Amino acid sequence: MSILVVGSAALDTVETPFGSVEDALGGSAIYFSAAASYFAPVNLVAVVGDDFPREQIEFLKKKNVDFSGLEVANGKTFRWGGKYGFDLNERDTLFTHLNVFEKFEPKIPDSYKNSEYIFLANIGPDLQMDVLKQIQAPKLVALDTMNYWIGGNLPALRETLKRVDVLIINDSEVRQLANEANLVKASKIVQEMGPKTLIIKKGEHGALLITRNSFFWAPAYPLEIIYDPTGAGDTFAGGFMGYMARSDDISIDNLKRAVVFGSAMASFCVEKFSLERLKNLSDEEIRTRFKEFWQMTNFDPNV
Amino acid sequence: MSILVVGSAALDTVETPFGSVEDALGGSAIYFSAAASYFAPVNLVAVVGDDFPREQIEFLKKKNVDFSGLEVANGKTFRWGGKYGFDLNERDTLFTHLNVFEKFEPKIPDSYKNSEYIFLANIGPDLQMDVLKQIQAPKLVALDTMNYWIGGNLPALRETLKRVDVLIINDSEVRQLANEANLVKASKIVQEMGPKTLIIKKGEHGALLITRNSFFWAPAYPLEIIYDPTGAGDTFAGGFMGYMARSDDISIDNLKRAVVFGSAMASFCVEKFSLERLKNLSDEEIRTRFKEFWQMTNFDPNV
Question: Which residues, listed in sequence order, are joined to residue A5 by a DSSP beta bridge?
């Protein structure tokens, strides 16, 4: 099954205690595609400027990512700059130059319209809705959003959420969206808005999968050095949706495995700057890390 | 196998968004005993003043807790007052009246000296060492400490840690003790100090069991209302040590189960004020919750 992702392509300038990069490949749709393409073909929709270094996405073209939906607009590519301290859960945004991304209007190529697994990365909720209207018969729609849209365009977000199956957001965002501090209560409130499945990303504390009648916790992989957390959330989503599309099975047991694959891919992402670590993973490396997650949580309940 | 616990007995005044209690039964040794006594006999060493309402510990006497080591001193019982906001991970201490606890010198009754499972609750590291010197042949020594001792009496704590098997502390404390922000690196540094096994409590984010060559994550139980987090850490330790003593098996597989029993007991603790919820649990309730933890983390790794 093929996946459609709509999001950003960007050039990131990032500084962490372990080094820095300037104008490195980034953006939600790019990170997502890099992870998802290990599992299934990806149809990408994004916009870049005429300054975009296209040779940098060659590795993705070789890996089942279709760039028919990459619009090249007159102007400059979206640029973001950020700085992380030793507490990698917090970051300072140094600059955000939306450039051509400011006028982004996602157009879904005809060849993409029968995509069954849809990931709406963090863009305006009205644009996310426009995308859904262009899709014929999605099997699973997942959406990411952020505090900027929850605070700034809640009515549109609420409308879009009605058509979403899986909401993938972080813990502070689910609390903000529900206006409720307790995560269990907040999840129920958000489920009432539309998405029956929530995936709550908690950074170094792992991820939660919450359905109508089950809770599942996936840990974060214990790393001694996190070089660059940028893109970890979109990489998580890519691993999750990639495995869902490959297995084409939306049972709860499979959702759990998909969350663990998402966590595994995110753990690779942060081991190097930009997309460096996601370029040349082997299937064996991914499988091994997936099994390590099992070892970290498995116990024999027979006492 | 019997357990020895040395710690505090206190009267707590607690305010949370869900209510308040005044001079309610509390203290590390009391919470620990209440949880551990569901699994194995407990020998308690603590001090109270002559104002201590002894009828409040009758339920523990009926549950295998030996109070031969409870010293009744002239003066008032240790009192602590605290207030929690909606973010139950943070609390304000309103007052700390050490009273008779200030001059506490743990004396281990002869009948306790062959205890095999030892829990040194959060008291001064020099007192913790004094206790260890009075014990004949401990099989497993676990210790809790806090930022106050890490900052205030590190040399004594380092000496005591050399004789400890399992250190049970929270994530900020392990970072402070190791002077290292990364939890994986910090754990290795602390293991070099003595305890080969670390249990890192992360509140609503669960608990980590770290041995020389393994990582294990236990989740926190998802609760819609946390009435009172006071004592959750000592209750966790009680469930952990209780199960270890009952099974008398220090294999890694058993340590994992013990961490889950600790998490299960802590989840009961916070459901009511003071020790109310820990008074009348059934074995069936404990077993059921233990299995729920398994369900929350278990997945089939065969893809």
Answer: A44, A119
